[in-house]
Amino acid sequence: MADKVYRVGIVGCGGMGRSHANAWTNQPRAEVVATADMSADSAKALADQFDARSYDDYNKMFADEELDIVSVTTWQNVRAEITVAAAEAGIPGSFGEKPMAESMGGTWDMIEACEKNGVALQVGFVRRYDNNWGTLKRVVESGELGTPLVWRQISGGPAPARPFFMEKMEGGGPLIDGMVHNYDFACHCFGAPKEVKCNPTKIRHDTTAIDTGTVLAEFERGDQIVVSWTWGLPPDIRTNSATEVMGTNGILFFPGSFPAAKAEGKHDPATQGAYLLLLAGGEEKVVTFEKNNMFRDELVHFADWVTNGGTPLASCDEGIASTRIAELAMGGGGLC
Q1: Whole-angstrom Cα distance, residue 84 to residue 149?
Q2: Longest alpha-carbon distance in the chain
């Protein structure tokens, strides 16, 4: 099994489908053999890039192809039904993009189907495989900042170009589609979420999804994340951005959130990135990391897990926690 080459099918042939297909083929243990999309043209266009077969019905692809893995890269309101169908077809591993589903009901359907059929399910929380984001977790676990911690992020601009991102029943807007990465990594660093508060609102009038909000989530030991995002601004207009983690002993500034001169001569920008840690007493530390391809490493990890078992870095439990935060945020908050 160690030398097995996985036969991969892609469901959803937009930008994320192309990203998955490229990531799979850029490592030697997988080949994309089939694609499926409700747009036959989109499925064929992606399939032609990889000498694969295309389908406009994922159920037919599951029936006709001997797949080892399926990547589900559609929008979240159909991920659950596709993953359930893949599990019932006996495909050994399903890799679903984030969030798992548009609601907790969908996540439980996916988990139940995969457990019933004895197949693997992993969620695409790619930051867990990124050395950049791993630096945040490393600093949190070092205790240098003290406890509890408050992670703040402010970000805003126009919505992504593709219309589905801002449709309520498709992409769902930034509070679920974009900020879910922050929810997940906060769970990764801080543990189980306890309570969510939010003021979801719309400042655009031509879309159906909530486009703006500030989400505050508190975790089991008192740590918090405060994320303020908008996808409601006109084209080419962006807010000032800031990302930092504060504690009783100091503050951690993310790459791009501090003057570049602070890290000059202390890392190799071609191969490394850097955070800035300011501690009590005036101490400054540049915390470096080696750059890596998180998308490739994520899929390699999943392929190894399907083969050898073990514990995935982004299991269903993580998918449940982040989906719950998103669901509460969209409704204004509540207990997790």
Answers
A1: 38
A2: 66
Q: Do residues 215 and 189 make contact, with C-beta atoms less than 8 angstroms apart?
A: no
Where do the structural domains in the chain lie, given as residue ranges?
A: 6-123, 128-292+325-335
Could you tell me which of 185, 181, 210 has the C-alpha nearest to residue 198?
210
Q: Is CATH 3.40.50.880 what the domain over 6-123 is classified as, yes or no?
A: no
| 244, amino acid identity | E
Q: Decide the pairing of beta strands 69-72 and 53-55.
A: unpaired
From 244, 253, 178, select the one nearest 210 (Cα to Cα): 178
3-state helix, strand, coil in the chain (%, to 5): 35, 25, 35
Round to whole Å and give the CA distance between 51 and 33. Answer: 7
Contact 165, 177 (CB under 8 A): yes
Dump the DSSP string for 31-55.
EEEEEE-SSHHHHHHHHHHTT-EEE
Identify the architecture of domain 128-292+325-335 in CATH: 2-Layer Sandwich (3.30)
**Single-letter amino acid code for the residue at 240:** N
Distance CA 244, CA 252 (A): 5
Q: Closest Cα to residue 12, out of 27, 34, 28?
A: 34
Angle between helix axes 294-308 and 15-25 (nearest 10 degrees) is: 70
Query: Taking CA 10 as the corner, what is the angle to CA 7 and CA 15, rounded to the nearest 5 degrees?
Result: 140
The reply to whether domains 6-123 and 128-292+325-335 share a CATH topology is no
pLDDT tens per residue across all 336 residues of the chain: 456 789 999 999 998 899 999 989 887 889 999 999 999 999 999 999 999 999 999 999 999 999 999 999 998 889 999 999 999 999 999 999 998 888 899 999 999 999 999 999 999 999 999 999 999 999 999 999 999 999 999 999 999 988 889 999 888 999 999 999 999 999 999 999 999 999 999 999 999 999 999 999 999 999 999 999 999 999 999 999 889 999 999 999 999 899 999 999 999 999 999 999 999 999 999 999 999 999 889 988 888 888 787 778 888 888 899 999 999 999 999 999
